[in-house]
Structure formats: C-alpha cells, structure tokens
Amino acid sequence: MKSNIKAISYYLPEKVLTNEDLMKEFPGFKVNDMTRLTGVYRRHIAAEEETTSDLAVKAAEKLFIEHSIHPADIDHILFCTQGGDYLTPTTACLIQDRLNIPKHAGAVDFNQGCTGFIYGLSMAKGLIETGTAGNVLLLTSETITKLIHPEDKSNRAIFGDGAAATLISGAEEGTAGIGDFVFGTDGRGYDAIIIKHGGVRYPYQKVKPVDYTDQFGNVRNDGCFYMDGSAVFTFSVEIVTKLIDELLKKIGKSANDIDLFVLHQANQVILESIFRKMKLPEEKTIIYLKECGNTIASTIPIAMKHAVDEGKVKSGDNVLLAGFGVGFSWAGTVVTL
Questions:
Q1: CB atoms closer than 10 angstroms to residue 258
Q2: HEC secondary structure over 259-327
Q3: Which of 84, 79, 90, 82 is nearest to 124 (CA)?
Q4: What topology does CATH give the domain 2-174?
Q5: H/E element holding 66?
Q6: Which fold has domain 178-336?
Q7: What beta strand segments (E) does 81-231 contain?
Q8: Per-residue pLDDT of the chain (337 residues; tens, 9 = 90+)
Q9: In what helix (H) or strand (E) does residue 334 lie, and over which residues does it extend?
Q10: Domain residue spans of the chain
C-alpha cells in the first residue's frame, strides 16, 4: 500500500488588505518597494471572531464538496497550526465534531509552522502505509494577522490568513505516491521567528508586553509575532539548497527528473534567490504570493493546487516539495502525481 495526495482545497477569509490600504494606513510606507521583495499585493484577513478552526472547517467543507468526499470516510485528522483555539483541548477534536467525522477517527494538533505541511505528509504516509488509516485529512490553518502588532507594517505586508485541506489516501502499488523524506532542525535559530510571551516560560499573567520601535519604524512587543528577516533570509537560501541536494541524492534523482519545485512561499526574494542559486528554469518553479501572501503552513498546498489547476503539472509528474522556517526547521519530499 502506498500513500497519495488525492485532493487539495483551500479557504481564504473574505476581508482583503491591499497594498493601497497599507499605504493609507502608513503614509510614507513604500509598499511598492516592499512588494518587489515580498511579491505580495493582497492578503486575506480573518474576521475578529474567526479562528484557525473556523478557517480549517471551511477549507475541509470545500474539499468535501469539490471532490465528492464524505466525512464518514475520514480515519484521521492532522491539524497544523501555531494558533489553536485554546491552549487545551486539542483543536483537532473540535474540528472532528464540527465536520461530523466518525468518533473512531484519530485527531491531533501539531505546531510546525512553515515546515508543517511536509511534516503532515510524513505523518499521513506513516498512518496509511502501516495500515492504521485509509484516508487522512491534513489541515493547515493560521490566523497569523491576529498575532502581528497593528503597527508592524513590514510583517503585515508579508503575511495573510488562510487554511488548506488535503486528503491523503491509500493507493495500490504503482508510480504515483508520496516518496521519501529529508528532515532537519537547528534549534539555535529558535528566536529568529518567535512569539515570546504566552507560553509557560513567559505567561501573560506574569509579564506585560512593552512596545518598542525597530530601526525600520515597525512597532513590536514580545507578545506579538517577531521575525528577524535578515537571519531568516540567510538561513533559507543556505539550507534549502542543501535540503534539495540531499533529497535528490537520497532518492537517486537529479533536478532534471523533477517537473516542478514547490517551495514554502516565504517571500519572492527568498524564492528567487534559491532558484537562481540552484539554476532552476522558471518553468519548473512556482511563486504564488500575489493574491494571498505568506499563509505559513498553507503556502505549499495552495501553490500546488494552483500548479495543478493551471496545468503546470499533470499525472505522472514528479513534484519536489520543501518547507522551511520556524525552529529553525526544514523538510522535503518528492510526490509523484
């Protein structure tokens, strides 16, 4: 028995924040200059009462409708988020109930940020190929804009909210399927992407966030999302090229054997730098940031769905997927469609 990605759908909140909106909010902010680096023109913003589970449920409902999937067929839910509805219980349990997925199904949360989709695929593959599950619903969802300081214009220009729903199912032995994985971790970079307050080490009850302004005029505090852009850029360009080389070596293929490279959509300058370093032709890459920004764990499935819908890949093609970011963490696999 092999595991295979059977279907992907995604949901973006109704509210849209455009570059023009940001320029009105921050007079003098050169959003268009920023866009040349980010590649983002519009990003979707969750409503005030809308949570990660709300987005995930809507993405899953779209998946069920668009691909004629019945909730009763789901054996396991994997939910990747950095912002669950509660510290406890597991948000996946709430999703199971709201989607009317059978009570015999497993349901688990995991927090792996921009690498999360790849980790989710690896867990789904393990569940299916050991005979534990036949159909795994992998949900990735973030409302990151709720965690960014309202006056942190740089991060507000990059990130958007959204959720993706991916069905991974068992398939007979053949060419299609999810291949081997490569993983990596460097915890020394833990504070390059961080929300410092709110966990057990710095609970909100004992610490009060204090606003400060960085050299670029962004207002931040330790209770909000922080990203060291320079450190993340250096890490990403260095590690992703090594990740891809290691993965290709592991599976005995070269870049010529890959039909499309779908990387975590961090921002345009990071992606273009990686593509140039690896000398990848444009037709073998995809950048999908313009309409939704960096949606963290959902960027890969969103980009992959667009690649399929636009005919960039077809049945039998080899697609290399790579995630990288918070932790620092990185992971990759090759999927044959």
A1: 20
A2: CEEEECCCCHHHHHHHHHHHCCCHHHECCCCCCCCECHHHHHHHHHHHHHHCCCCCCCCEEEEEEEECC
A3: 79
A4: Peroxisomal Thiolase; Chain A, domain 1 (3.40.47)
A5: helix 52-66
A6: Peroxisomal Thiolase; Chain A, domain 1 (3.40.47)
A7: 106-110, 135-142, 162-171, 177-185, 193-194, 212-213, 219-220, 226-227
A8: 899 999 999 999 999 999 999 989 988 887 777 788 899 999 999 999 999 999 999 999 999 999 999 999 999 999 999 999 999 999 999 999 999 999 999 999 999 999 999 999 999 999 999 999 999 999 999 999 999 999 999 999 999 999 999 999 998 777 779 999 999 999 999 999 999 998 888 888 888 888 899 888 888 989 999 999 999 999 999 999 999 999 999 999 999 999 999 999 999 999 999 999 999 999 999 999 999 999 999 999 999 999 999 999 998 999 999 999 999 999 999 999 9
A9: strand 329-336
A10: 2-174, 178-336
Buried b (16+ CB within 10 A) or exposed e, 141-162: bbbbbbbbbeebbbbbbbbbbb
Same fold, 2-174 and 178-336: yes
User: Which residues are 54's β-sheet partners?
Assistant: none
Confidence (pTM): 0.95
What is the set of active-site residues?
114, 264, 294
Place of tokens 């068992």: 170
Residues 198, 201, 203, 208, Cα dihedral to 10° = -90
d(CA 188, CA 146): 26
